[in-house]
C-alpha cells in the first residue's frame, strides 16, 4: 500500500499494490501496522455501504460534531465517484479549503479523512457503491452538514446534481452558521 498525505494536513490517499498472477490478483486494503506507522487511526467501529442509482447523485457535505467527530476511510467498490473533503478545523491554515479525488473500483484508491473535515461525493457512473469505515458510532443528533454549493467553498462538482436528499439541499451556508454561532 502506498500512503500519500495531501496538501490538506491529515488527509491521505491510500493506493493499493495489487499482486498479480495467472488467476487474477490479491490486494491488501487495510493494514493496522502500516496505518499506525503513518500516524493514522486504526480503530473503526462501523463499516457502511451506500448504493446510488444515478450518475450525478450528490451526497454531503457531512460531519459529526464533537465529541462524535469521525475519521472515515472511503472507497468506491463499484463504479466511480468524485470524493470531496472540506477542512473545517477552526485553527487550520487551510480552513475552508477543499480537495476532490476520483475514487473508482478500478483504481481502488481510499481516502482517509480525519476528524474536523466535512465529506461529500458525487457519483460519476450509474449504480455506484461506496464503502465507509467509520471511527465513531452514528449519532443522528451530532450529524450535521454544510451546503454543497456554499460560495465560501466554491467546490467544482463535475456534474449537475441529479439526485440529492432534502436534508442535503437545505444545509445552511457557512456564513449564516458562523453568524448564528457568534
Ligand atoms: C450515515 C448513516 C445513516 N444512517 C441512516 C439514516 C437515514 O435513515 C439513512 C440515510 O442517511 P443519510 O441520508 O445521512 O445518508 P448519506 O447521505 O449517504 O450519508 C453519508 O454521506 C456521506 C457524504 C458521508 O460522509 C457518510 O458518512 C454519510 O454521512 O441511513 C444510519 O443508520 N447510519 C449511518 O451511519
From TrEMBL:
Record organism: Mesorhizobium australicum
UniProt keyword annotation of Isomerase present: yes
Catalytic class of the enzyme: isomerase
Annotated protein name in UniProt: dTDP-4-dehydrorhamnose 3,5-epimerase
Entry EC number(s): 5.1.3.13
Keywords, comma-separated and alphabetical: Isomerase
Taxonomy, superkingdom: Bacteria
Amino acid at each position: 500500500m502506498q500512503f500519500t498525505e495531501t496538501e490538506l494536513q491529515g488527509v491521505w490517499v491510500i493506493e493499493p499494490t495489487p499482486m498479480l498472477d495467472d488467476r487474477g490478483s490479491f490486494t491488501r486494503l487495510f493494514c493496522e501496522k502500516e496505518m499506525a506507522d503513518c500516524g493514522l487511526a486504526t480503530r473503526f467501529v462501523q463499516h457502511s455501504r451506500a448504493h446510488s442509482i444515478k450518475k450525478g447523485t450528490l451526497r454531503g457535505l457531512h460531519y459529526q460534531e464533537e465529541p462524535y467527530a469521525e475519521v472515515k476511510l472511503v472507497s468506491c467498490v463499484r463504479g466511480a465517484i468524485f470524493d470531496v473533503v472540506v477542512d473545517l478545523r477552526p485553527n487550520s491554515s487551510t480552513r475552508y479549503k477543499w480537495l476532490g479525488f476520483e475514487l473508482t473500483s478500478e483504481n481502488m484508491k481510499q481516502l482517509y479523512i480525519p476528524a474536523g473535515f466535512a465529506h461529500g461525493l458525487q457519483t460519476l457512473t450509474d449504480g455506484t457503491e461506496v464503502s465507509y469505515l467509520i471511527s465513531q458510532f452514528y449519532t443522528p443528533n451530532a450529524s450535521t452538514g454544510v451546503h454543497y454549493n456554499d460560495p465560501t467553498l466554491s467546490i467544482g462538482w463535475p456534474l449537475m446534481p441529479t439526485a440529492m436528499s432534502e436534508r442535503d439541499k437545505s444545509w445552511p451556508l457557512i456564513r449564516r452558521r458562523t453568524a448564528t454561532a457568534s
